[in-house]
Structure formats: C-alpha cells, structure tokens
C-alpha cells in the first residue's frame, strides 16, 4: 500500500523550493558539531565556525544595552514601580518603556495586537523613516512583521497568481526570494549583477531580461533590489537608484526594496539612500509608483535575529489592494510584540542629550567599525590567494569571492555529483570546520564559482579563520592542479 504521505505526493512547489544558507553543508556542519561534543579530538579542528548566515549574536556579538533595557522593562512592567530600578536602568530606557507601555492596550506585551502592529509603535517607526529620509511617512503604511522574510512572502502571495507571473531578481540573490517565488508558484526572472564593475546593476541588463521574459509570455510584476547587496555587499549609487525607480515607473513594475542592511556601510564614498527617499526626491508621489520597503531588526549593528522583528512600508497601492494586504496580515494574527518594540527602537535610538546616548553610540560605532575591519581583513586575505578574486565589501555582512577552480577539481565534483563550489565548500568544512555557502545557492553567471562568507566571526577569531582557510585553499589547489 502506498504511503499516505510520501515525497512523491507532496506539494511540488515545496519540493522545488531551496534555501541554501541552511542547506546540505550546514546540516553536515551540525552533525560534525555533535561529533565534537561526543568525541572531542576526533576531527582536525576543535570548533565549527558558522560563516554561512547573518546571525551576529550566535558568533558572540553582544546586544545593544539600551534596546535590551527597554525590552526588559516593557516585558516586566512591575520593575517600573521599584525604587532600585532607577539605579539599575538608565533614565531614558525607563521613560521609553513607559511610553511604549502607554501605547499598548492594557500594557499587555503578551496579548495579540492590531494585525499591522501596535499603532503607537508604527507611529514611532514612521517618525524614524521621516527623520531618515526627510519625507513624511504614515503609520497606516507600515506592517510590522516577524523579521523581513514574512513581509517578502506576503508580497509574493499577493502578486503571484500562477507560473506565468514573474519577479525580476538579482543574481546572485538571497535565496529567500527564489524560495518564496517557488513556494507561491511564480517564475523567477533573473538579472545578473556585473561582477567586473563591483556587482553593478545595469539598466540595460534589466531591460534585456524583462523583454526576454515578456517574449515568453511571462507577466513580470515586480523588481527586487537588495541594497546594500546580499550576498554581494555592494552599495548602490544614487544616480543608479534614480534610474531603477524610473525603469519601474516606465515598465509598470512594483519595486520591492530589501533595505535590511541600511546601517551596514563600510566605505566613505558611499551612503545609504532609501528607495522611498529617491522616489520622492524625483518628484514621484503616492500614485506614481507602487513601492514596498523592507527593514529588519536582525541586521545592522543590532543583530537581534532571534527576536524576529521587522516591518515593510507600502506606498503607491490603492485602497482596495491595501485591504487585501491587511487581510493576509490578519490571517497571521499579528507579529510578536518583542519584535514590534525592537523595530520601533531601531528606528528611534537614543538621541544626543539622552542619558544612554554616549554608551549607545560607543556600542554602535564599536560594532560597525569592527565589522568594517573584519570585512577588509577577509577581502585582503581572499585576494592574496591563488585563483581567488574578491570585490570590495562596501556594505552588508558578506563577501562573495569568485574561486577559479582547476578543471581537475570540477571533474572530481562531477564524479561526486556535486556542484564544484559545493564540493569545495564541503571539503573546506571537513578540513577546517569553517561553514561557507556555495555560490550555486545564490545563483551566479554560468561557469563561474563562488562562496559566500559572513564577516561575523568575532574579530579575535578572524586571523584563525584566515590561517585555516589559506592552508586549506593552498592544499586544495595543489591537489587538483591541472
């Protein structure tokens, strides 16, 4: 008798969906980690270094004190009645917690909220957006979500009707997009970033891919732009962003702007501009361009991945469409309240004159400056190795070096039924304990091979990562030299 549930009779959209940053290599790493615990000394390394995912606190980054103080007081309001709290918590954390609790019906952080998020917290987020961009923002345009990912899924659910609906996505891309498009039954329309120009986004490439998709009968609904880039780490120039906005306007596309790395910029000659700011500065109003901007508490300098907080802001959608977005949000009831509070805090951190400002600023600058140094050290290390070329890490949390693999290694990978970069990453893991994601998990120009490496191991561990990687790479190249 056939099994009631077997892989053969599952939803084919689920089978088609892949998510490389937690894929085969990571599962193998977790097995090796268990082996290290049960049989210490049985492997050629003593710890697993997870450089596969942007998860800062798992690698030792400390949370920002002010944010955690406010969360603690908000979750346990009776602390606000105690005299000793004044000596344990900063005055501005106490006053912010009181403000937040006043905005929550019944001061109950354990209760469901409005499906878009608590109104007072959305007001705070809107104020933060307005102060960042210099253009007004409205709490009614904001949907608070459990991280940015659920917002992306909601948009795909909304826009994709069948496999004839396409979404333009950068290649390389963060696999959330390809996975989400597959799950919702649409078609990913790739546009390739130009590695030679530092992962440049060329409008001519967008046009070419859009026309090609349309010629095949695909109705392209939206353009995804990740800025700063994941996995590529580039930061878009303002004039490039203007061209992208005009392109979406002319072609009738929704612009899906993934801006979760907006605080992560490591070069002096680039700065973050939101697509909302660019759109408004070009003179486009509410009715000119449908735009969705995603933000998250998981990235930046805060790195609160496990708290699952984020939001998306929608502008340029009609009232009937907004009702449908609200309906999807309502099916999920609401996002978690801790994440909602954090989203309001990251958009409104302490200001000059607040008691916590100096310590907050020192923590923020310390984290971002350390990330910049780590990015530079890894970038230099990759570029000093035979057969590896790596673009500058301008932003985000990753490097995406290209590995020019010998033909012999490509043949060995084929024999092992693996993509060459997956074969390389697996050998690296088994030799060194370093976990990288192969470029094939993100998409890449055919015939090129990459790995994505986070810059997140603690700074004192970076020299060891570099030493281990260098020894492995030199041995690998020697073994497979043509």
Automatic annotation (TrEMBL):
Pathway: Photosynthesis; C4 acid pathway; Amino-acid degradation; L-alanine degradation via transaminase pathway; pyruvate from L-alanine: step 1/1. Residues 93-457 form the Aminotransferase class I/classII large domain. InterPro entries: ALAT1/2-like, Aminotransferase_I/II_large, PyrdxlP-dep_Trfase, PyrdxlP-dep_Trfase_major, PyrdxlP-dep_Trfase_small. It comes from Urochloa decumbens. Pfam families: Aminotran_1_2 (PF00155). Transfer of C3 units between the cytosol of mesophyll and bundle sheath cells to maintain a nitrogen-carbon balance in the C4-dicarboxylic pathway. Keywords: Aminotransferase, Pyridoxal phosphate, Transferase. Homodimer. Its cofactor is pyridoxal 5'-phosphate. GO terms for molecular function: L-alanine:2-oxoglutarate aminotransferase activity. CDD domains: AAT_like (cd00609). Belongs to the class-I pyridoxal-phosphate-dependent aminotransferase family. Alanine aminotransferase subfamily. The keyword Protease does not apply. Its EC number is 2.6.1.2. This is Alanine aminotransferase 2. It catalyses: L-alanine + 2-oxoglutarate = pyruvate + L-glutamate. It comes from the Eukaryota.
């Amino acid at each position: 008798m056939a099994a009631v549930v077997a892989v053969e009779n599952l939803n084919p959209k689920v089978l088609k969906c892949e998510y490389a940053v937690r894929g085969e290599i990571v599962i193998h790493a977790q097995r090796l980690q268990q082996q290290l615990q049960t049989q210490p000394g049985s492997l050629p390394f003593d710890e697993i270094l997870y450089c596969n995912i942007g998860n800062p606190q798992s690698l030792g980054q400390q949370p920002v004190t002010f944010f955690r103080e406010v969360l603690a007081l908000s979750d346990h309001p009776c602390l606000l009645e105690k005299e000793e709290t004044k000596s344990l918590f900063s005055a501005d954390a106490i006053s912010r917690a009181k403000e937040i609790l006043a905005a929550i019906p019944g001061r109950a952080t354990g209760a469901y909220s409005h499906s878009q998020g608590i109104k007072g917290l959305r007001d705070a987020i809107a104020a933060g957006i307005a102060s960042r961009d210099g253009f007004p923002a409205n709490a009614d345009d904001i949907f608070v979500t459990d991280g940015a990912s659920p917002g992306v899924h909601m948009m795909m659910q909304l826009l994709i009707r069948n496999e004839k609906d396409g979404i333009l996505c950068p290649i390389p891309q963060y696999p959330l997009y390809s996975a989400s498009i597959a799950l919702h039954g649409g078609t990913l329309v790739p546009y390739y970033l130009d590695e030679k120009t530092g992962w440049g986004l060329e409008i001519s490439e967008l046009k070419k891919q859009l026309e090609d998709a349309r010629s095949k009968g695909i109705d392209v609904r939206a353009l995804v732009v990740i800025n700063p880039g994941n996995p590529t780490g580039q930061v878009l120039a303002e004039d490039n962003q203007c061209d992208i906005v005009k392109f979406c306007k002319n072609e009738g596309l929704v612009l899906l702007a993934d801006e979760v790395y907006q605080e992560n910029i490591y070069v002096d000659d680039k700065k973050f501009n939101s697509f909302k700011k660019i759109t408004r500065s070009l003179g486009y109003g509410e009715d000119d361009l449908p735009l969705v901007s995603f933000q998250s508490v998981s990235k930046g300098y805060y790195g609160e991945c496990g708290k699952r907080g984020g939001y998306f802001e929608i502008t340029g959608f009609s009232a009937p469409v907004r009702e449908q977005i609200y309906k999807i949000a309502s099916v999920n009831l609401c996002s978690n309240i801790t994440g909602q509070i954090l989203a309001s805090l990251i958009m409104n951190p302490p200001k000059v004159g607040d008691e916590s400002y100096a310590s907050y600023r020192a923590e923020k600058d310390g984290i971002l400056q350390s990330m910049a140094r780590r990015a530079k050290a890894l970038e230099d290390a990759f570029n000093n190795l035979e057969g590896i070329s790596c673009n500058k890490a301008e932003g985000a949390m990753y490097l995406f070096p290209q590995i020019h693999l010998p033909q012999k290694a490509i043949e060995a990978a084929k024999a092992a039924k693996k993509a060459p970069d997956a074969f390389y990453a697996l050998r690296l893991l088994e030799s060194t304990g370093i976990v990288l994601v192969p470029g094939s998990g993100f998409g890449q120009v055919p015939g090129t091979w990459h790995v994505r490496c986070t810059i997140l191991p603690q700074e004192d561990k970076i020299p060891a990562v570099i030493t281990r990687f260098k020894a492995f790479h030199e041995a690998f190249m020697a073994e497979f030299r043509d």
